[in-house]
Amino acid sequence: MDYWPTHGWRPGKPAAFGLSQPRLAEARTFSEDKATDALLVIRHGYIVAEWYFEGYKRGQLHESTSMAKSVTSILVGIALDEGKIRSVGQPAAEYFPEWLQAADPHNRISIVHLLSMTSGLHWDSQEDTQRMKAGSNWLSYALERPVAVSPGTRWLYSNGDATLLSGIVRKATGASLFDYGREKLFRPLNLRRIKWGHDGSGTTDGGSGIEATARDYSKIGLLYLKRGRWEKQQIVSESWVNLSTRTSPVAKDYAYLWWRFPEGPPALENAFYAHGARGQYLLVIPKLDMVVTRLGRSSPEVNRKYFPRLVELILQSVEKGSAAVVLPR
C-alpha cells in the first residue's frame, strides 16, 4: 500500500490499474436492473469503479444482513489474539454455565463449532430467527435450542450460533460485541458512522444488524486483503485471517463465518467473501489484490445467478499481466 484509506479513499482510472473499462461497464449494466444499490471495485487500494443506483447515495448507511457474521468472526479473532478467549477449541459451556451439567450434550459444543456453523443445535433459519428477534433476550433463546446432532458432524446455517459468539465475546472481554468492535476494529479504520443492532439485554446481533456505507464495508474487505494489517497496526493476526477463511471440513464452501468458492478459475484461489440476504456481498480476491462490494435488495432467485455472473465479469475485466501494475504516485 502506498497509502491507506483511513481518512478517505483515492480514486483511480481502471486502465491505470490493469482493468478494462468496457468490461467494468458491463458489470454496471448487468447490475443496474437487479435491485442493486451500490457496486464498488477496488484494486491496489484505489477505487476504480463506484456506482450507486435507484437514488441510493454514496454516504448512505446500508444494512449488512449476514455480512455482519464475518465482522463477528474478525472480533472473535481479535479476542483470541489478545488472550481474552483461550482457543477455538475452548468449550462454549465455559461461558455458559447453563450448559455445564455432565449429562447435557451442549457441553460438547466448542467455539470452533459455532464459528463453522457445526454446533449441532436445532435451528430453523426462518422460524427460530424470527422468534429470537421478537424477544428481548436473544442469547437466552439461542442457549435454549436443543442439540439435534453431534457437534462437528453437520453444517447448518444458524443465526443462533452467531448470537452465541456475540455472548462469548461479551463475557470474555467485558464489552458488548459492538463496543469491543468500536474500540478494536471500527475506530482504527475510522468507521465513525457504523451502527450495530442489539436486544433489550445489550447483546449485539452477531448475525446481522450492521449499518454502514459501501465505502466503509470496503475498508473491512481491504483489512482482510492486507492480512489483518492497517497502516502500522496489526488489527487482527495474519494467522487468524488465514484460519478464518479456510474452508471447514464439514462445509465445502464455508469457513469461520466467511464464504469460500468450492471451485472456480485460478484467480479465485484463496478468494473469500461475506454474504448477506438480499444480495450483500463483500468479495476479497487476494490473487488480484482486489475488493468488490455490492449492496442491494435482490431476491435469492436473482442472487443465485447474479453473483456468479458479476464475479465472472469482474475477472474478465482484469487485463493479462496486470498484476504487476506500477501504482501512480
Describe the structure.
A hairpin with a 2-residue loop joins strand 1 (36-43) and strand 2 (46-52). The protein is globular and about 65 Å long. The chain has two domains: 5-57 and 214-229 and 252-324, DD-peptidase/beta-lactamase superfamily (Beta-lactamase, 3-Layer(aba) Sandwich); 61-212, DD-peptidase/beta-lactamase superfamily (Beta-lactamase), CATH 3.40.710.10. It has ten helices and eleven strands. The protein is an alpha+beta fold and 329 residues long. The longest helix is centred in the last third of the chain and has 17 residues, at 300-316. Helices cover 32% and strands 14% of the residues. Helix 1 packs antiparallel against helix 10 and helix 2 (67-81) runs parallel beside helix 6 (159-173). It starts with 20 loop residues before the first helix and ends in a 13-residue tail after the last helix.
The helix/strand series, from N terminus to C terminus, equals HEEEHHHHHHEEHEEHEEEEH
Strand content: 5-15%
Radius of gyration: 20 Å
What percent of the residues sit in helical stretches (DSSP H or I)?
25-40%
Largest sheet: 6 strands, antiparallel
CATH first level of the largest domain: Alpha Beta
Shape-level CATH architecture of the largest domain: 3-Layer(aba) Sandwich
**Coarse structural class:** alpha+beta
User: What is the count of β-strands?
Assistant: 11
Strand order of the largest sheet: 2-1-11-10-9-8
Number of domains: 2
Q: Please state the average pLDDT score.
A: 96
Low-confidence stretches: 324-329
CATH homologous superfamily designation of the largest domain? DD-peptidase/beta-lactamase superfamily
Return the CATH topology of the largest domain. Answer: Beta-lactamase
